[in-house]
């Protein structure tokens, strides 16, 4: 095997890194890798899944006698791991400011404590999602099959965890948790999205739900539905404005069929039905039914 | 690191579990985890892939002299593993009834024996799928590249295995096998779907094929095609009726382009062509070609 | 557990393999498994990601003092591994011809040496993609979040590596690298596609980009966009013609919204905007904006 | 690579197995592998070590708040695993008799329940061993160092577990647990040996303690000490008699230096000291000191 | 964390390597690591153990129906792995000479083929060792316990494999196989030693058996027995002479108790008994019994 | 499976832990596990072995071109890992005192920096040990075989690393490194022992070398040699006195045969030879030869 001039490649890659760091006004002397770890969060989410559903997602040989021991031990490990990741995120996001390390650590501890306390509520919401899927899919045989097999339910476990982290000031952890589900299911829900109880996505591949979307209770989506932004709001000088409401509001009991695209801060009224592949950029009244046919059947000009 | 009140979280999670179990009329004293294992089925499918295609999906150092030893040993381990999973499914599905354990075990054994006997036929069908992909894609360089790289072929290996398990009374195992492929490829084929030889999905991401779909020979699909149900059939009192034919029948030699949606128990006649993004809810005659243009070119009212 | 007649299954599977090998005019005595290994390429790509972005995708405890040691060691292992895979591909593709093993090995060495030398350029292109994503997504908080979380960026790391391998005469390695990203992200870019700097795919699931597509600089795509072939070019006798330009040309600064389908060797002129779910099979002038509405607003016949 | 005639080797090995099975009067149709598993017991002992000493041999990130959750969860898994191994042993040892499977399972359950109940007592004995090592070795810096580093302590953790299993009618499990320590430390204690509190083996490599040895409290041994049988007791017809007392009795506070060999059912009286490399086959009075010199200084005949 | 001057340590270590290579008259440009791999041989020996004793050392779920498939597949992998290691050894040992690579490969193939053919004979010898241990130890409960638990039997599995490799011109592979057992059992048998059927080492730790030792049938040793060389034979100029017989000959039915040391090319006659801790440097007649007492009881001068 | 009363066992184990902590005057509220980790040190030593001998103990595919990259990267990871373990030890040993965390960290950094700087010298000493083994053993075929196969050399790699750590104020890390070798080789060298260049232990199992032993250059030992303390020095009140010289001094070129025991602060003069199984508690003059025979041949009284 011949030489590959590794020395020269190493040198040229170093040069490329320096260019990048200079362009980003970064020191060439970083203190180490500071970003939260995808691998660590993968383990944490696996542990949380077991703690939330011990007899179904926990270890195969778990017995009722020891269920709480398992839950307590697993939770403890998950929360400790989460604290470490939370500190990494808070230090990363605060590195422009002169922040006190002890203050950051206390903030991470408090966030994770609040997160832990909300797990029972998350479990109840997920139970409602499981029931919704079971009741909405004629092919479902049992609630257990739904919990174990449906990618839409997997995506919601991740989302309800990620949404809570997002609300506690840990948007990067939330994002990584969401992307883990995205990679496995093809369902892309931004952790900022607010989603009510009893939510069901059938098939799910290709669903996209944006950061400021608000979804009511008992809503049902099919694959490849988009709840997106129409265009990015800009301020007077044309800069993107972050955080403004720019995704749809979907009220209770709405059904949206495969491939439909809803864009912008529009409202789909309670009980509305949106047909497949339909493109919606205006409000839809409660109870209305919108289909491609209805749009095309508008009189010719 | 401060305390996380793990005791309290454990208590509240236990309460949530009890609520759930009460709502499902389940004993609070389950005997242990009884559902088949995703991890075990992942291993079983890997073993089956090696046994079906030993020189291409088996171990890298396999030699012709020992091909049958490898196939026999691998099959044996896979079938034993499958028996254990089959028993779990049959016990789970039969737990409302007073079933005899020995009878369940015998049923599992018989199902797995029949499954094993059908593997040569599955191999022949998969060979026809590989050939169809090779012949249908100008970018394909060899049949081996197709077998090893094409997600559509991976999805069909899973489907043909899952469909056989489904036919042998093991729908949960079948479902898990199907979801394993769904997670890796974004292709969602219900194990109940009947698919003929020489089936080819190009790109594939987003394809959805429903439980009662029937597909003939030499059919070709592109990405994001849906063969779905128009609406769920309900009985007189409005309850969902399970198992009724509600997905399309696709006859031999049909081609369906990307994003097309075919809904309900309609028939696409032999040799028909369905254009991209088209929405079809009626029968299409043999040999016909349906495109968005053709739909829009219908005279204005 | 009863007998499964493993002997008989093994016999019947052998028969099926022999049928296949006969149908493919292959010897029944292959010398061993000769195809490149998906597992080996998975490791190689992981190593390349670390060598390209050591402080962000390398090991968590990397320090600046030892950055170059890490890069050099990791690169060396990756390039050696790549040489072995390149030899496998070249032997495989050349097995019909009477090729000299030493010549194949020298060709593999030379290709990998050229590949290594192009890594700094690949790093610069990827930096431009990261910046484009950061600037184009109001939800992005930092360039590091983009690099670590965005599936579109992951797909581009794979694509820029795969495209280089494709250009160096290693299309199978390139294809496997591309499929690894396809499986994780649902984004399907053929390694042959030419893509300029500053490319951004938002959400990305379901994007398909064909082999002969040519994309300029600063182009932005949303999920489920297809840049495909209208139909396969055939020669006078109806055989598929491989390698002919059959996918779109997308000029600089074009934006294509979710679900749009562009088919055939058409050109989207500089700065054009293509709306969501639109179906385009003709050239679009520079600066033009095409939407479903604009298509439907064409006068009735 | 040439052929290795694997078929022929397989045939000849089968013949050798059949010879063996015939010579052992065994059916050629065993039902499967029935012996307890070394791997399973390795895991079980690791878990027991963690449950016995959670903050020192448990997971590195364990916190006081969750100590009991960890202990309970780990114990539960270990005891369940132990039940499965106990059933294997009892079925194996009972396979000549027509035993009721349910009776065997109940016996295994009862043995493991009794084993679990004795763990707190085992912990207290091990604490006394740790203290003895700390007090007896001038090089020891802390009790924690002793627990974590001293092979003699590791051997005693295994022995005290193995001895309890031995007493509960599980001699094979006990033997495997003992051999695991033998392999790691070179210390070979038969699980039948009775050993009092505060036992300390310094260095330890080469120590051998036989099945019927009885050791009092606060005994100290150095490396390569043997407490063995002088000769095997035989009955009138010359058959080995199993289970008869044939190893030494060592009373409280005895010290035995390196390389000493004590053989047969002799008694070393309380507080006796046995010098290095000495060979003892007779009783030694309490308080006596035996050295090579003292033996050689006996008057010439 | 401060800087560790890694650059400087790397430089100084390089200097130390160059000194060493110069002192050994080696090129500073080695072609890569060429020594056989301890890890590879560990796997190969594990596979051989399974192939030799499939129902006891093979996989836990093996069934009689598939025993031969397992043996054949496992053997094949082991023999292929062994060929690669044999080539490494032969190239290494032949690197001073101008050897033909193809000739080396053929030699490796032939050696491994002969090794494979001798496995049935090795199995029979090991069966005789297992029986000898069972019959010789009153604590043994079954032949299966002996095979699975006794370190002396483990050492003999390694030795009988290693001795065969040694005889086939692969002394380095043999040595590594022997050292693997030495590390696990504390029993150090040089692969050159010739050992007859029915050999039993009780306890075993500390046994040392030299390269040219010759041991008959039904010999029994206890722990810490040495069969060593008295002094190294040197030639006229005082250089060590390799390969000369310099270790004891032990005839059939000899018993040697713990700690005895037999040095030099002496013969222990058939049926002799050597007591514990005895030091022997002269021939012992057949049937004689040598003890420390008998040596010390020689009349005073 | 019946209940195991896990709750009750957990309670009783907690009680046993509290008793222990009370007896040791420890708080019941430890802050977490604080002892250095055996697993971490196992990895660190593996990395150091690779960095010291890259082409022989490093990765199998290492090439000369990248040797320094490998060494630098591996060293960096090992030294970082060592700093973390050093901090754990220093905090543990200082927990009775009110120590400043920053001061501890600086002390750990400095110790590891000094350790790193001494690695080239350690490499040179180990080269001398390898040469000594090669020259002293007629069975050795090459220096590479010695480095890779001889347990005595493995023990010396660990010892020379451990001794340096011991000298830098990290006795616990040193002890763990030493015990790792003890477990693998049966050779027990206290890290405090001072050992000159060219040291060779043949076979080695059972060798024990005490904390204050001092060994010159070119010394050779055989298996089961003990360099121990005669008795523990006590002060006026009978307390053990730690750290006093209490083990032998062995001058240059001494040879000690198997099983010899040298006890107390005696001196074996330059070039002395100690025979097998001999017991020495007095000084031996330079050049003298001591054997059992010579001791026994002393005139009768």
From TrEMBL, chains A, B, C, D, E, F:
What is one Pfam family matched by this protein?
Hexapep
Q: Which GO terms describe its biological process?
A: amino acid biosynthetic process
The protein's matches in InterPro entries, at most eight in alphabetical order, are given as: Hexapep, LbH_SAT, Ser_AcTrfase_N_sf, Serine_acetyltransferase, Trimer_LpxA-like_sf
Which SUPFAM superfamilies does the UniProt entry name for this protein? Trimeric LpxA-like enzymes
The GO terms describing molecular function are: serine O-acetyltransferase activity
Q: Is Acyltransferase set as a keyword in this record? A: yes
Q: What class of enzyme is it?
A: transferase
Alphabetically ordered keywords of this record: Acyltransferase, Amino-acid biosynthesis, Transferase
Q: For this protein, what reaction is catalysed?
A: L-serine + acetyl-CoA = O-acetyl-L-serine + CoA
Q: Which family does it belong to?
A: Belongs to the transferase hexapeptide repeat family.
Matching entries from NCBIfam families are given as: EPS_EpsC
The protein here is known as serine O-acetyltransferase
Organism, scientific name: Variovorax guangxiensis
Recall the taxonomic lineage recorded for the source organism: Bacteria, Pseudomonadati, Pseudomonadota, Betaproteobacteria, Burkholderiales
């Amino acid at each position: 095997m011949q030489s590959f001039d590794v020395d020269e490649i190493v040198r040229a890659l170093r040069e490329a890194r320096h260019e990048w760091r200079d362009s980003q006004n970064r020191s060439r002397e970083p203190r180490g890798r500071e970003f939260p770890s995808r691998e660590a969060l993968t383990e944490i989410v696996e542990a949380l899944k077991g703690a939330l559903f011990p007899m179904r997602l926990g270890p195969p040989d778990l017995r009722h006698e020891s269920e709480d021991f398992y839950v307590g031990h697993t939770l403890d490990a998950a929360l400790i791991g989460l604290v470490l990741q939370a500190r990494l995120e808070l230090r990363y996001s605060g590195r422009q400011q002169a922040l006190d390390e002890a203050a950051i650590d206390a903030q991470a501890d408090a966030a994770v404590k609040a997160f832990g306390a909300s797990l029972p509520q998350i479990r109840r919401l997920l139970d409602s999602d499981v029931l919704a899927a079971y009741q909405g899919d004629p092919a479902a045989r049992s609630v257990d099959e739904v919990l174990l097999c449906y990618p839409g339910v997997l995506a919601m476990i991740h989302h309800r965890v990620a949404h809570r982290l997002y609300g506690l000031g840990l948007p990067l952890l939330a994002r990584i948790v969401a992307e883990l589900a995205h990679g496995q299911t093809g369902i892309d829900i931004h952790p900022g999205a607010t989603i009510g109880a009893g939510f069901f996505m059938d098939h799910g591949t290709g669903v996209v739900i944006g950061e400021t979307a608000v979804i009511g209770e008992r809503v049902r989506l099919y694959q490849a539905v988009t709840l997106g932004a129409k265009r990015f709001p800009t301020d007077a000088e044309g800069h993107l404005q972050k955080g403004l409401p720019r995704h749809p509001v979907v009220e209770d009991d709405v059904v949206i069929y495969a491939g439909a695209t809803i864009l912008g801060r529009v409202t789909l009224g309670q009980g509305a039905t949106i047909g497949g592949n339909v493109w919606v950029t205006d409000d839809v009244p409660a109870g209305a039914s919108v289909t491609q046919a209805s749009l095309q059947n508008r009189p010719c000009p």
